[in-house]
Write a structure and sequence with these properties.
Strand 1 and strand 2 form a beta hairpin. Helix 1 packs antiparallel against helix 4 and helix 4 runs antiparallel to helix 5. This protein has one domain: Hypothetical Protein Ta1238, Chain: A. The longest helix has 24 residues. The chain is mainly alpha-helical and 178 residues long. A two-stranded antiparallel ribbon has the order 1-2.
Amino acid sequence: MKKNDRNRITHKGDKGHTDLLFGGRIKKSSPIIEAVGNLDELGSFMGLAKTMVALRKTKKILEEIQQDLYIISSEIITPPNKRMKLELRFRKVRIVWLEELCKPKKKWEGCCFFIPGDNEVSAIFDVCRTVCRRAERSLWRLSARKKVSPHILTYINRLSTFLFVQARDSEGRHRKFR
């Protein structure tokens, strides 16, 4: 490895632009970059959640979701005329997979509002859920300007439901908002 290969400071983003996949540059203030940044933040918080859950099966599910988020991000940041170059594309079957995981393991009372923070695991799932909702809103804003696959929009919506269920199922007790 050459000395320069270890230096990841490129200075290319210093003027407010960043690279798209397969060529091209875009402003960092673009709705595309906002959406991809929100998905990246979500993936990072999912990584934190993965370190906190005890069940190996749940860790594996979270890892698969992180992989889905990378595939979605790569589609969003790739110009439409270059998407055929992507090795992996988001598949509708992932929505069905996620919907199966949205079934609560425990019965819990209440309709909509719960106070987060019963324990660290439920709290991190609630953080993931709120970041997911922000990512979803940014994808919907982006979809008003650029075609975003309806399957991606549906998946992100289901993901927030999955995270809500994980948070509630991770609680020892439910503290409903009164």
